[in-house]
Amino acid sequence: MKQKNALPMILVTLMVVLLLIPAFVTMAKGGGGASVSNDDEYFLTWEEYVTAHGMTSWNWTDAADAIEKVAQHAADLYEQGDKGTAYEYAKATYWGYYETTGFERNTMTYISGSRVSSVELQFTTLRKAVKKDLGTETVRAEAEKLSDMLHEDAVILSPESGSQSTGSTAEKSAGSKAATFAGSFGIILREGLEAILVVGAIIAYLLKAGKKKEVIPVYIGAGFAVVCSFIMAGVLSWLKAINPETHMSQEIIEGFAALIAVVVLFYVSNWMVSKAESEAWEGYIKGKVAESAEKGNMFALAFTAWLAVFREGAEVILFYQPMLSEGNPEMVWAGFAAGCAALVAVFAVIRLLSVKLPLKPFFLATSILMAFMTVCFMGSGIKELMEGGVFDDMSFMLSSPSWLSWIPYNDVLDVFGVYPLIGTVVPQLILLVITVVTFVVQIKRNGDLKKTQ
């Protein structure tokens, strides 16, 4: 009973820790970009840029032009030998412009999530080229590549600013509504898929094992994560209003949450596979479950559900806030409802499989799914920390852009944390090897234990 009562307090404590992580990281790096003074031509934030140019209206090509100007200024400063200031302007292209203008969110909504990831990693590559002193030619080439990508997206987001024909008002209205619906649907499906896979698998496992009462803490953990997500979204909005560079807080929080999830999921997956044989023994489900309810493991399951939902929740809220104020709010809610329905369908499929599959195959399948999500969280967590600037100085990131051309960039791989980067793929492969070895050892132990019964 004490264990269950302690659950909310432990989760609140963890949330506070996650909130404080960005502050510690910023202090460790010596503060933010506010220490860099702007001149008459270049600005560290979009707000300053808009004010200085007296812009009352703008399109995405204007935003891309502004980011290009800052990126090229960073390259100029680097060439002049002022690498410290150059790095501040290189950081500003992302935290001061790409996120504050809404460029990132609109690209996610109306183009694709994988496109956002590729552009974000190009921002990271530019910063790394400056930070690791890769030379003027490389820095300028990365700045130009970033500009090209942003202008390509700007034409899609604001076709009226390019050479494309915009069509009639009715056609634009219909297209806008369809795009809003598709964007809203894609956001909730993309961000919710990982969470629903984890939570669905945990609940199906407990029901299959006859632990119906233990499902309640899992639901509580997931529900409490929704509340924490709203709190986190509010805190992040406040941080971003104080200092644009604290936009990195979102990436850092999500990254650390993902890596914590890696540890918890690894433990849970191994615990599940350890029961693949023992749960099938006669008498275990009938008697031992009730007698030896493993409180620590039940907490781990509830904590896993909380992490899975919390990690994505705040981001979903932050994406939906401006969408609702930009027009077509009914299409936003329609897309949200359709996405939730799709997630419920995924949950139903997992529950259906839990009913039809025999015990041993189901427990093995569930533990494998958990292990798979562990590898996914490892990739996405490292990528988020890269975007937050935490890994700019890490030696394993190498001194040159570590792109792997044989790994494609698409929404499916992006959702599951697979990116064409050595910095994410290598840790994932190491974790995969460790997981496979652990599973083989555990299954062998299960077999030996069964022989002794």
Structural summary, described in words:
It is built from 16 helices and no strands. It is globular and about 75 Å long. The protein is mainly α. The longest helix is centred in the middle third of the chain and has 40 residues, at 169-208. The protein folds into two domains: 2-18 and 168-452, no CATH class; 45-161, Up-down Bundle (Four Helix Bundle (Hemerythrin (Met), subunit A)).
Shape: globular
Rg, alpha carbons: 24 Å
Task: Please indicate the count of domains.
Answer: 2
Number of strands: 0
**Model regions low in confidence, pLDDT < 50 over at least 5 residues:** 1-5, 21-39, 161-172, 278-293, 393-401
H/E topology pattern: HHHHHHHHHHHHHHHH
Q: How confident is the prediction overall: mean pLDDT?
A: 74
* Helical percentage: over 70%
Estimate the strand proportion: under 5%
Secondary structural class: mainly alpha
The biggest beta sheet is recorded as: none
Tally of helical segments: 16
Taking the alpha carbons of the first and last residues, their distance comes to 33 Å
Keywords summarizing the entry:
0% strand; mainly alpha; Four Helix Bundle (Hemerythrin (Met), subunit A); 453 residues; single chain; 2 domains
Q: In terms of topology, how is this protein built?
A:
Blueprint: H1 2-28, H2 46-52, H3 60-79, H4 83-98, H5 103-110, H6 113-131, H7 136-157, H8 169-208, H9 215-242, H10 248-278, H11 284-291, H12 295-325, H13 329-356, H14 359-387, H15 411-415, H16 422-452
Helix pairs in contact: 1-9, 1-10, 1-12, 3-4, 3-7, 4-6, 5-6, 6-7, 8-9, 8-12, 8-13, 8-14, 9-12, 10-12, 10-14, 10-16, 14-16
